[in-house]
Amino acid sequence: MRFVVSSPLLRNVLIVDAAFSAASGVLLLAGGAALAGAFGLSPTLVLCVGVFCLVYAIFVGSLGLAPMLPRGIVWLVVAGNTIWAIESIALLSQVQPTSLGLAAIVGQATVVAALAAGQWIGLKRSAPAPTSV
Questions:
Q1: What angle (nearest 5°) sits at the alpha carbon of residue 110, between those of residues 69 and 63?
Q2: SS3 95
Q3: Which element (helix H / strand E) includes 46?
Q4: Which of 8, 59, 66, 109 has the CB geometry, 3.0–4.6 Å to 85, for a possible disulfide?
Q5: 46 near 32, Cβ under 8 Å?
Q6: Of 108, 128, 114, residue with least CA distance to 35
Q7: Is 119 exposed, middle or buried (0-12, 13-18, 19+ CB in 10 A)?
Q8: What is d(CA 107, CA 109) in angstroms, rounded to the nearest whole number?
Q9: Of 101 and 130, which is predicted with more confidence?
Q10: Is residue 84's pLDDT more than 90?
Q11: Dihedral sign computed on CA atoms, order 75, 73, 28, 11
């Protein structure tokens, strides 16, 4: 497994990703039923996304705090965020969100896409970890 020494950009974007995900998760879980109604989405979807966001926040936050990272795991995070953004937009063809729901879905997809781009650039700026002989 190849490791990289996390660049400051990668570290910061991972931490911002964790903070955004944690805040989203808490908000979705605390206001689940009310937000589901306001967004025009099912309460089950809102609850599941909230739980996922909290678990993901812990995972990505731990990566952001590590000085050396497995390169493949970071690529997995970049790919996951890219897929999340695309799937969020694709969700719009399957649900009938309210105007607020539409804004929330598009807004979070935009933030997640920007995070994926920042993580990709940060990974490119990260140095290969020294190998011990």
A1: 15
A2: coil
A3: helix 43-65
A4: 109
A5: yes
A6: 108
A7: buried
A8: 5
A9: 101
A10: yes
A11: negative
Nearest to 77 by CA among 23, 116, 111: 116
pLDDT at 44 over 70: yes
List the structure tokens of 130. Answer: 């020294």
Among 82, 89, 70, which residue's Cα sits nearest to residue 118?
A: 82
For the chain, give every domain's residue range. 3-128
pLDDT at site 1: 84
Q: Which helix (H) or strand (E) holds 20?
A: helix 8-30
Give the phi and the psi of residue 39 in degrees, each rounded to 5: -90, -15
Distance CA 34, CA 40 (A): 10
Residue with tokens 């306001």: 38
Q: Which residues pair with 107 in a beta bridge?
A: none
Q: Which SS3 state, helix, strand or coil, does residue 30 take?
A: helix
Cα distance between residue 115 and residue 43, in whole Å: 26
Provide the β-strand partners of residue 128: 4
Task: Provide the whole-model pTM.
Answer: 0.94
